[in-house]
């Protein structure tokens, strides 16, 4: 199932002070010293200092090398190049562009091949680009207003009319999701993502059902999402995959999230649903 989504998070704007202040800001955010960065980038602390203060203009190769070692998101590397006086290197191709047909069809085949287990494709704002039948099964009965594109995975999961009331360990799973967003905000410095975090963090947490029995304790190897479905409690471990060395902003911000059954009962139930 392919879902229409909104645009990606806004990118940073290069300053008129050159690339130095931008690189210094990324280095300080990553808590890396000039010497450590120099060692990583096969340079010298003196040269890094000169770049940051504007006394030396880095080559295009050096800008990209420093960005790589500072783990600067692909979206933010174009502003670094522009600030250094170079042309942007990374295009931002719409996912429905014919140039990405192979990528799009490959992701569709991947998540369909994962069935009956749930899997979906999201971008940096957690907007859903594609989902398989395992995901649609979990969404059964969700109000239509939450399913209107663009579908957002965080809103859908944490909204009190969404999946939240069905998640047996909501407080733990909610804490995991909010912490995940915190890490992404620190990495990407995205205001739209920060606003989304503030929105979903403010959702009321549904009260536990009166007389509800706690889920039977099971020795999981990672925090599971325990969710009710048709009178059963299904348990899933989430795994997220991204693309190696992406050369396009859109591709860099895509992630494939798969949900691995965390116990034999979940495996048996899902496999019983296979035609």
TrEMBL record:
It holds the Pfam family HTH_3. This is XRE family transcriptional regulator. It comes from Streptomyces curacoi. Signal peptide: none annotated. Residues 23-77 form the HTH cro/C1-type domain. It comes from the Bacteria. Residues 1-22 are annotated as: Disordered. One of its GO terms (molecular function) is DNA binding. PANTHER family: BLL4672 PROTEIN-RELATED (PTHR35010), BLL5781 PROTEIN (PTHR35010:SF4).
